[in-house]
Amino acid sequence: MHPPSPQLLRALRTSISPNCSTSAICTQLASRSISPLARVTSSSLTFHRYNSNDARPTRMIPRAHSAKPSSRDRGPPSKEDTQTDFGALNVLGNIPAPTTAIDATLDTGFHLDNGVKITGGDGVFLVGGEAFAWRPWQGAEAGKNSMVNKKGQFEVPEHAWGILDLVWPRPDMLIIGMGETVFPLSPETKRHVNSLGVRVEVLDTRNAAAQFNLLATERGVSEIAAAMIPIGWKGR
């Protein structure tokens, strides 16, 4: 068998190779065949140099201060009548304290302004300018511990407030001092006192004594009453 002639091989190559009609189309096809990564040149990348001067804060100039005075002497005292007298702002300074004001609270009692001393662990009930020894736990088997119920609330029987039924006019507010700390007042006790037309405020005994002295001086002993347990009682 004879090999193909050179003319036959040339004709076969011409029929197999793509025929580009124009040089522009061939150039476009050649450019599309190039990889996208090859199109990126080093000239298209832009590098920014960090300038440390841009982040440097502006220097603040300290404010000029006046020189420190050599002495504390501010000159002679003012004799003007318009000068404020802070001592005159105490509007209760010239009002005498009530005789039932509490001078001292003790672990086992109280000392009043009129010289009366309540000792022996008794509480005190102050109403209408009078002072009474108060034992709200009397008659209970648990004694003083019975004043705190199972829910941790301060609760005493209704007869402990019986003195409020005897006075008239009744006080506007009753301050209850609960010994060393404060316990929440039981809803039953609060409801009973409020039913008598008396508001209730609960505090520890030290603050209750100070509150009573202030309000009784300002509003009078007929408006403010107090029932307090000695500070030695700590509850359960």
From TrEMBL:
It comes from the Eukaryota. Gene3D superfamilies: MTH938-like (3.40.1230.10). One of its GO terms (cellular component) is mitochondrial inner membrane. It is found in: Mitochondrion. Residues 49-84 are annotated as: Disordered. Keywords: Mitochondrion. Its main location: mitochondrion. The keyword DNA-binding does not apply. This is NADH dehydrogenase [ubiquinone] 1 alpha subcomplex assembly factor 3. It comes from Aspergillus brasiliensis (strain CBS 101740 / IMI 381727 / IBT 21946).
